[in-house]
Amino acid sequence: MKVLDLMGIPAPEKEKITALPNVQVESTDYLAQHGLADITVIFGWNKQAAALLPENTSVRFVQSFSAGVDYFPLTTLQSKNILLANTSGIHAQPIAESVLAYILAFARGVAASAQRTPADFWASDDLRASVFTLPGKTALIYGTGHIGRAIAEVLAQQGMTVNGISHHGEPVAPFATVGRDSDSLALAKAADVIVNIMPLTAETHHFFNDAFFNDLTGAPLFINVGRGPSVDTKALVAALHNGQLGGAALDVFEQEPLPADSPLWQAPHLLMTPHISGAFAGIYAAAADILYHNLVQFVQDGTLAENQVDLQQGY
Amino acid sequence: MKVLDLMGIPAPEKEKITALPNVQVESTDYLAQHGLADITVIFGWNKQAAALLPENTSVRFVQSFSAGVDYFPLTTLQSKNILLANTSGIHAQPIAESVLAYILAFARGVAASAQRTPADFWASDDLRASVFTLPGKTALIYGTGHIGRAIAEVLAQQGMTVNGISHHGEPVAPFATVGRDSDSLALAKAADVIVNIMPLTAETHHFFNDAFFNDLTGAPLFINVGRGPSVDTKALVAALHNGQLGGAALDVFEQEPLPADSPLWQAPHLLMTPHISGAFAGIYAAAADILYHNLVQFVQDGTLAENQVDLQQGY
What we know:
By secondary structure, chain A is of the alpha/beta class.
């Protein structure tokens, strides 16, 4: 059984995987020479794999390197009965730390100080009056899955009250309150920090738009560590310029790579990172470990051990 | 019993205080009209209060708004048996959060991303490889007093191992290890993050000098939230340029305000804030809360609940 490795499985994990009965690992060279012929499992994804999949009959399981799988041809995978697994879980800790990093950069005046010039650096009365501490502040997290919960845990640990929004609206620890979409406005108005970690679906596309930002009253911080297209970039830029938002941090963007002429570059009170909130030294090993566990099960009975994506739902 | 409020107690705290049996709050208008006549407690301090105190016989307790009380007439207070309390303690939480903010700004690539231009923003392979998470990392805090302990608690909560250095070297929770000055080198070499929160004395002046930085082997982060002159600025700048330090964050400086021609402005991997790590928006409420707790006790038995200054020692 051939496993096509498009990501570069680290040596220790590769050794475990090739020790499985009848399993061979092929590199991107194989893809260049033979396409997807005789490939049963793909680890990672690229344009060439996407182009070849519709005509291929051997692929039975794709292990993504990401938590979100919106960029996969879900309908094709479903019609061909190909299993898809994500790496949901390994990004939770780094993303939660990144969210805390963004919040604290604003709360403790680090972001504002970094933008000052030698001439105005010490004129800090405005900073002194605006810096704050986290206990007693309220966060609202859109998405109460495991990454949302990991973020909630880190923020609750800092003394924040953390509410959530989900489809089902069912109580989930450690959220103080979980509302449905219909509770969004009331909870958003009460929030000092709003975090998006929803998957990208037709319903979440441009969920954060002019109407959303215009309804806010407390000039909260807005953080997007979910998917770029969940935010209407124009609306966000306007909300930063007109003060509907006190600040924003974006790790994901409607268009990636972020274009050099994006209006985001001129927006005030904005922190940006280049889609790295889920990254950490050790991420390849962690993803390959999920692949390994799934392969063990897949070799045995053709099912997956963990992180299987519901192709109908898209996550 | 009249409490003279020279600071402006915020409304919620004022409500709690006036609900105490037989307690009235008077404003600075009272001072202008009646002086200190019939005043039992003073919150804050000013020149008029200082001038009137020697002839006054009713004041029994002064609650300062500051941690340091060197500007009070300690001898007069002592001879008149007037109790004095400071606000020591309210800066621990904001300073601890600031330390976490600096560490996470480096760990999660926020500081490095903010320095990128539109043209090189998305070239993030180096960032992806360098960002890290906090669990398993080691911090060394110079100073194990109450602010040092608050920093240690916040970092330990993030999964870091936190060691400390103090004069006595005695074990203090939540430090994993507390060493004396003689253990400094060994513990510093093992640290991913080094934090200074020592008071400034003859012994701590330029404690962090060329010799200190040159001995480091793991390119740690260095954070100063203590006193500026504890660091030899030239040595720090050299350590940043030559890579002995992986990065640094300074809230205090040898010369304050920080001069526009300081070599720090040209140093790489450096975050600076203008002596604001202890500031926070609720500082008036926090100080009034100490006053409230002291009043509760004072009304009951004439003693103070917290933060009483030893008038002989002066702190």
